[in-house]
UniProtKB/TrEMBL annotation:
Presence of the UniProt keyword Acetylation in the record: no
Signal peptide: none
Record bears the keyword Secreted: no
Protein name: Angiomotin-like protein 1
Coiled coil residues, start to end: 44-134
Species assigned in the record: Cyprinus carpio (Common carp)
């Protein structure tokens, strides 16, 4: 309540002061209006410059984003090519491994065959020697 009275008193004082200095207030309002009006174009110009700077920075960022997107696309393309190459090389590696296993099996089979041939040769040479001995003694 005390606050309301205080505010009312101030309002009445302001009204009476305003009515007493009616012409002075109008003059001051005019000066204030003119000063604000002269500052307004400066402020507007300043805001326009800030807006232009922000728009320029935004355009720079958009160009930077486009460059980064292009770099990303190039990197992804290279990754796909490298993955395809890797897949081909893995197939070659698998084929080489199969061929190496087949070669190892062939080598084992060849060694067994050579051993068999050697035993057969040895046996045939003994038989031949035995036949020669029989012929000489007969």
């Amino acid at each position: 309540m005390i606050l309301n009275r205080d505010l009312r008193d101030r309002l009445e004082t302001a009204k009476s002061t305003a009515s007493q200095s009616g012409d002075e207030g109008t003059k001051m309002d005019g000066h204030l209006y003119l000063s604000q009006r002269s500052e307004s174009p400066k402020g507007l110009e300043k805001l326009e410059m800030e807006a232009a700077n922000l728009q320029s920075a935004n355009e720079d960022q958009l160009r930077h984003i486009e460059i980064l997107e292009q770099a990303l696309n190039n990197a992804q393309s290279k990754i796909l090519k490298l993955e395809e190459e890797l897949s081909k090389k893995q197939k070659y590696v698998e084929q080489v491994e199969r061929l190496q296993k087949a070669l190892a099996q062939l080598q084992v089979a060849c060694e067994k065959r050579e051993q068999l041939e050697q035993r057969l040769r040895t046996r045939l040479e003994r038989e031949l020697e035995s036949l020669r001995t029989q012929q000489v003694s007969a």
